[in-house]
TrEMBL record:
Primary enzyme class: hydrolase
EC number: 3.1.3.15
SUPFAM superfamilies in the record: PHP domain-like
Organism: Paenibacillus hemerocallicola
Name used for this protein in its record: Histidinol-phosphatase
Pathway(s) this gene product operates in, as recorded in its UniProt entry: Amino-acid biosynthesis; L-histidine biosynthesis; L-histidine from 5-phospho-alpha-D-ribose 1-diphosphate: step 8/9
Domain of life: Bacteria
Record-annotated PHP domain positions: 5-220
Biological processes annotated in GO: L-histidine biosynthetic process
GO (cellular component) term, any one: cytoplasm
GO MF, one example: histidinol-phosphatase activity
Record field: catalytic activity: L-histidinol phosphate + H2O = L-histidinol + phosphate
Family to which the UniProt record says this protein belongs: Belongs to the PHP hydrolase family. HisK subfamily.
Family matches, as InterPro entries: Histidinol_P_phosphatase_HisJ (IPR010140), PHP_dom (IPR004013), Pol/histidinol_Pase-like (IPR016195)
Amino acid sequence: MIKWDGHSHTKFCKHGHPDELERYLEQAVELGFGRYSVTEHPPLPERLIDDERLMAELAMDFAEMPAYFDYVREYKKRYEGRLDIAIGLEFDYLHENYAFTERIAEPWADVLEDAVMSVHYLPGRGGLRCIDYKPDDFRVNLLDYYGSMEKVVDEYFDHVEQAIETAVRLPGRKRIGHIGLIEKFRQALPPVDEAQIRHRLEKALPLLKRTGVGVDVNTAGLRVATCGKPYVPEWFIRECVAAGVECVYGSDSHKPEQVGFGWDYFEQAMRG
Ligand SMILES: [Zn+2]
Ligand SMILES: [Zn+2]
C-alpha cells in the first residue's frame, strides 16, 4: 500500500495558511509519503450563502484557477521521483446545480487527477447554510430549522448519497469527502444517535460500491475539540475494504504541520 495523503489545501485557500506548498511537501517526504494529492476548494456560486464575510473565506475565485493549477503543476515537476503529487480539487456538492460544478471541472478535465466531493452546505434558514462553520451558526440556521438532530442528520446523508452519484461524473479518482462531517460539533450540540449514523453509512456503502467512488478517510475531526474523532469510523473503513471500496487517508491539511496527522488511525484500521 502506497503511503498517500489524498486531501490537502494550499495558500490558495482563504481560510488556510499562507505557507508555500513546499513546506507541506517536505513534511510529506519526511514522513515517508509516496503520493500527495492537493485538493483545493474551487470557486462557489456567487452569494451561495447569505453571509458575505463567510463567503469571502470559503473558496478561491474563478480568476485564480489557472494560477492554482500552474502552481501545483510546477511542484509536481519539481518533486518528480521523490513524491507523486496529484492535482485535485475538493468539490462542494451543490444541490441541483451540477452545471456549476461542471463549469469548474470541464476546463481542467485533462489535468485533474483527484476529485474529492464534499457536502458542506445544506438548505437551512434563509437558504443554504454551512454545516461546519460554527456550533452557534449550526444551531440557529440548521438545528432550529429542521427541529431535531435526527432530521438534520437524515438530510445530510441524503445529500451525501446525491454527492456520491454526482461525483461519478467528475474526472480523475473520485472520493466522498469526510463522510461524517455532520458530527463536527457533536459535543456542542444535542447528541447525534450513533445508530442512525451507522444505518446511514451502511446504506451508503452499496452506492459507493456500485459507483466506484472511494472514501476520504479524513482525520481532521481529531483536531476539532467538539468532535475528537476522525470523520470515518473504523468499522466503516473495514466494511468498505471488504466491499472493495477504495479508502484513502486524508489529513485535510490547512497548515504544513498537519500533513500526516492521524495516519496511525488509518493504518491500523486498514490492517483490520
Ligand atoms: Zn478548507
Ligand atoms: Zn471539506
